[in-house]
DNA sequence: CATGAATGAGCATTCATTCAT
DNA sequence: TATGAATGAATGCTCATTCAT
């Protein structure tokens, strides 16, 4: 894989195919069809479909890291809010986002059976927890957050965020995520934020762009616009003081 | 499906097959192999494999309801602790439990693509939320819990529990669940429990027995013993006062 | 494989496909095409193509044993001559016979790489050597053959016969087999046969019928006729006195 | 193919790949991997894989001729013994030799389906028979051998040798070759050798070196040592008087 | 009810060969 | 010469589902 364009093309095609078919029904053909290349080429570049998907997970981590870098300049509470909303609402248009997270959940679901996926996913999750802890720790240092155990809180935070998202995806018809978000602000962040700090309205920076390009010409969706959480979650500021 | 014994046999076989192969690799043959009947018979009783799995989810709800009935006599805080530990630690031996939840997660993962699964799973989830809300509401009534919005709290609680379990299953190597549990007790229950009430040490009643039998002769594991959470979560009472 | 008709059908189809394509280019489809059944059925009855071919070799041994039984009543020297000509000229029409032996040789060729084939082929070869030794031993007992080491002679005999056939198949344009046959009669049998015994003109009993039927309606070739070696080998009796 | 070094490199690689994978599983990649060149280059030098293999057979004949030239100075009975042992035991270490002959047998097996291979193999075989006849004819002239038909005897001899080797390769677990060798000495050579001549203990001259180099730096194995047949065949002189 | 046999639609993967550079 | 990238045509095998009995 000497040519990064080809990898990008395959990764983008994989992303699209995952959104459309889900992991369980993902075939090599589905991926190739979203490429101007042949199915055989996939196996020229990867030893197996599994390898390809594992690389896809890795690719996502790279995109995530790029995105995280963009939030460095925000204050801890802003970063926290950004993090939460990115987690809960993500990037891409609504349908695509749901499709994508569904597919990713399917891949996670295979982790117990699949060493390779497990390894990549853990790598990705380690980054996630590191970032969350870093944000909390910074907040404690700057005095924006009350003193608490950042590791434990990060674990709780991410469990809740992940659970909320997964449940929204797999079960809910109503705005389950919004409900959890307010509860989280009220019950968890209220304890964490210092007296005079309120939980900022979510503001996402440039989204994670799967395609990795800068011009947003990807057909992965209108990925360069700043996303706002839907209105019903706007109640956050009310619940946060 | 006129004969309930046959249904039980098929459901038990499905459970075992799911534990062993996971949903993605579950074949009709796998199920039939765990039965003294033939593969064709499955299609005599169900129109498709999908139908069979959907019925399996329904079957689980029935078992859940039976199990819930057994907790009616506990105090709200006891029921809450029981609920939490059942959710996080479940029934069955350790391996089986994990296998089972992994397989169930796979099925949930299909919900976005599968109307039928979605319907059954929502039914199951509705029961779950009802129970959680009921427990919280009862606690408020008896004064064991402080006044709060039970629906929102239930949503938060379940999101966290679900997220913790899923993350333990799909990502964690360490005792992630234990970490989340303590954080939850410290940050969420502390607010909920009235001044003089502490979070009880988890005590599970008779477990949900998938097999539904009363004699416990099933090979689904030693399912009738009362389970205790592992030691590291026993710290709950410490963190809850 | 409860129904022997199906096995027979598959074996016959395998025989024909082997004759036509050779082992190297034998595909499951080729076999299925010579059946009124589907390709999938082959894998219903056999776990793999390899298993099927191994069973085919076994099937041949069964046919061989049936054929051998028919020669029990001949005198040792007659049996020897029959054995030699069966080995060198075999059954079936000329083209088919060659094709078949070629395919069998390909299978033998895989033995060093394939445990399963090796096992079946050895079984088949053990029968062959047993029969040859039995013939020689009987001849010594009846005084038709001079005293010699039957095991060693059988080894030499079969090596020569096998080599001759293989070389005819893979290399020769001329009547190489005939040449070897006369030389064998002159140089080997001359020593073995007692003073007053001459090597009988080859006379094959009913041929080995791959199909195993009794009516010869198989399309495996006109297999029930008594075969005679081609004329040019008729010189055998000349060289043997 | 202007550069003989490239041809040598490809031929050597082909030899090694054949030993390791056998003909049936020989891929162009396998050959290229044993070269410092790319797979595409093979198709630059040869129109097809088949062409390459055909050239490989031709290459072997060239090596054989070089080797034969070295035996010119021996007496006919010495050359005969050398020829026999070269045929039965060949050159190279034990494993390699077997692997190689197995692969060659696979190629021979394709001859009936493949004009090109057939042509090359016949050329190679013609040389073999010529040499055998030449040795026998010389022996008759010098009086070392009794008068007999050299062509017929050569045919018999080679059939037996070839059969023995092939059977050892594809079937035998025991020392089948040794058994045939003694029988051959006792039953065939005894008739051929003049009264006062005994079959010499096999002595191989410099072996055929596939690589064709003179310095023996090839990793084809320690190919320049004189090989001796295994002990159990040393009984030849005993059986030959 | 119950089943063994049967099948069609796929699917991941392989590999000789081609081609632009 | 030389190669990395690319591909079409197969191939063995799987599995939900059907059906005759």
Automatic annotation (TrEMBL), chains A, B, C, D:
GO molecular function ontology, one term from the record: DNA-binding transcription factor activity
InterPro entries given in the database record: BetI_C (IPR039538), Homeodomain-like_sf (IPR009057), HTH-type_TetR-like_transc_reg (IPR050109), HTH_TetR (IPR001647), Tet_transcr_reg_TetR-rel_C_sf (IPR036271)
Alphabetical keyword list: DNA-binding, Repressor, Transcription, Transcription regulation
Domain named HTH tetR-type: residues: 4-64
Source superkingdom: Archaea
Keyword Ribonucleoprotein: no
Region (Disordered): 204-241
Ranges annotated as DNA-binding: 27-46
Protein name as it appears in the record: Transcriptional regulator, TetR family
């Amino acid at each position: 894989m000497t040519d990064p364009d080809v990898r990008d093309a395959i990764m983008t095609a994989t992303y699209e195919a995952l959104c459309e078919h889900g992991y369980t029904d993902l075939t090599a053909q589905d991926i190739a069809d979203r490429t101007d290349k042949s199915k055989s080429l996939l196996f020229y570049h990867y030893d197996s479909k599994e390898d390809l998907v594992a690389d896809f997970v890795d690719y996502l981590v790279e995109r995530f890291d790029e995105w995280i870098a963009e939030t460095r300049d925000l204050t801890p509470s802003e970063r926290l809010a950004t993090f939460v909303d990115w987690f809960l609402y993500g990037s891409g248009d609504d349908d695509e986002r749901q499709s994508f997270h569904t597919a990713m959940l399917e891949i996670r679901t295979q982790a117990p059976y699949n060493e390779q996926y497990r390894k990549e996913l853990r790598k990705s999750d380690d980054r996630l927890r590191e970032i969350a802890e870093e944000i909390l720790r910074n907040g404690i240092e700057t005095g924006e957050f009350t003193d608490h155990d950042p590791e434990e809180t990060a674990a709780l935070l991410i469990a809740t965020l992940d659970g909320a998202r997964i449940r929204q995806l797999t079960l809910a018809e109503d705005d389950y995520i919004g409900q959890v978000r307010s509860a989280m602000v009220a019950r968890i962040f209220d304890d964490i934020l210092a007296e005079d700090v309120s939980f900022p309205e979510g503001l996402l920076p440039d989204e994670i762009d799967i395609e990795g390009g800068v011009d947003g010409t990807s057909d992965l969706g209108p990925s360069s616009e700043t996303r706002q959480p839907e209105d019903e979650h706007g109640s956050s500021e009310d619940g946060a003081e």
